[in-house]
Amino acid sequence: MLIPRLLRRLRAFYVVQENDPVLAAAQFQALARQILILYAILALNVVALAYTHYGLAPAELILGPPVLLIAIVAVRSLAWMRAVRQPSQGPETFARLQVINLWTLLLGIGLAVWAATLMAYGGLAENMQGLFFLTVTMMVCVQCLMHLRTAARILTTIAIPFSLYFLVYGAPLLQVTIINYLFVLIGMTMMQKFAYGDFRRLVALTAENGRLAHTDALTGLPNRRSFVARLEATAERAQAQGGCFGLGVIDLDGFKPVNDSLGHGAGDAVLREVARRLERAGLGWVARLGGDEFGLIVEADADLDALGRQLCALLREPYLIREGHAQIGASIGFARFPEAALSADSLMERADFALYHAKVRCRGTAVCFAPRHEAQLRRQAAVEKALRRADLATEFHLHYQPIVDAASGRVEAYEALARWNSPTLGSVAPADFILVAERSGFIRDLTRAMLGQALDTMRDWPADRRLSFNLSAHDLAAPETVDQLVALVVESGVDPSRIVFEVTESGLMRDLGDARRVLTSLKALGVRIALDDFGTGYSSLSYLHRLPVDRLKIDRSFVTQCAEDATALNIVRSILDLCRHLALDCIVEGVETREQMQLLRSVGCRSMQGYLFHKPMPAAEIAAFEAASQAAIRAKAEVHPVAA
After folding, report:
1. DSSP secondary structure string, 271-306?
2. C-beta of residue 521 within 8 angstroms of C-beta of residue 491
3. At 252, is the secondary structure helix, strand, or coil?
4. Mean pLDDT to the nearest integer, 253-278
5. CB within 8 A of 326, min separation 6: which ones?
6. How many other CB atoms sit within 10 Å of the CB of residue 108?
7. Does 295 have pLDDT greater than 80?
8. Residue ranges with strand state E in 51-116
9. Residue 248: count of CB within 10 angstroms of its CB
10. What is the pLDDT at residue 513?
11. CB count, 10 Å around CB of 282?
12. 528-534 and 551-554 as β-strands: parallel, antiparallel, unpaired?
């Protein structure tokens, strides 16, 4: 038992242990920076020793070993330069380190024997040169091999018997030199031990920092940096091998309300559970991209539509957390390589586009980027390019649609609606350019320009006419933008109570806490707040009481159905009852026929907006419209004086 144990320890002392691939890779890289220096010093010292013994020793002993060594050094140097250009991993790295150990053993023994043989032909001066060669060369080589302790130990072991030989049989001067050398060698060995320990700790710390740099701290999943690197490598491999794979971008629906209602601790718990479900599903390589967004790489020719349905169903299941139950969903955008794109960046762009399409058109489902989306993407790219070059003052203008009291015909307000005539694209629909402006971040500049234009127009209106102006969710997300809007209102001199800022329900739900703070600061100015498209979201009633809202605008989808669908009319009636109980004004938009108007009036609606009353008009036509409205009101009063 003792002998096998000693053999195992001896092997561990001289043989590279294949238990730490990260350390092995770091050792190889460190040696790559020093091995050529080692070879150069070795070759120079061999030539110097041969020169000092020229004419004393046989010619074959003087010329043969140096020529052989220089040839070996040249070949090994070329091999090292190729190895550095092609980094190895795992078993290959361990094999290369073992080769270094083998060459250390062969060259160490060979050079020591050669030097000792030459010293037999010289006097004291030549022997001192030979001893200098052995000691200094060994110390330099040990120093260069310090990152590979097994190789350094091999050299040290070779040096000891030769040192003991000269210590016993050498001249007194040689003995003194050897004693000094042994003390230096012991000191170097101790210093090397400490330096190697520091090297190992540094490698471990670097590896840990690298792991942390590529890992999401909350969920333990790979982070965006790691995801991008994996995506690029997967795309390169698929392109080289003619393969295919799918890229998915997952965005959680309804996550912000969880944070707002249950707290950020609950939100973190939900994100961890989402990560656990995605990993456990085993449908692909998962990473957290940031916030409530996750990435998925499916390295197979999978059915992405079926996979998307499976993931959406998985993430819709209730979340049982310490704070209670949470219910969220997920929208997913997929893009397939190589059909959608051939580069990682383009593939990510198309997956993002598919996700945005899912969020806008069919929230809670998965959409796979298809050829029909390519035209939309190109159109949006053209719109964004033109938008960034646009002169807001000359290309953009506002149309105004009246909001009227249907009972009296009196105009209550005008809603400002942006229009764009691009020199390159022509007339661009608001649904197109507003969507692009929001995605590109240009919406804030556009909002400021349009509000300034609307405030200038208001100065020509009757004093009791209000302006209804739409704010994007991106406007609410930027406090500096809100400050600029407030400054515009103050500088205009317009009474803030005449201004109504409309915000969409879906925009508010993105971050209810920030939205509430922004709307409260706007309310402090004296403006009014309207909730637009009411009834189309999933959380209206839950959060309405938490927002400083003055009025609701019932979405046109209920109006278009109210004549044929009693349920739609009942929903309108319920919203009106809600407004009465909460002391909120209510406006119905999208009224296009007299039948719709009469039905809405029958359930209590007064304030209406739609083509029945007037289409959106340029500012120059408002004066004529006002005159016609006043004439109609007077005519009605003359016909029905009692009602008037």
Report:
1. HHHHHHHHHHHTSSEEEEEETTEEEEEE-S---HHH
2. no
3. strand
4. 82
5. 258, 262, 266, 270, 318, 319
6. 21
7. yes
8. none
9. 26
10. 66
11. 7
12. parallel
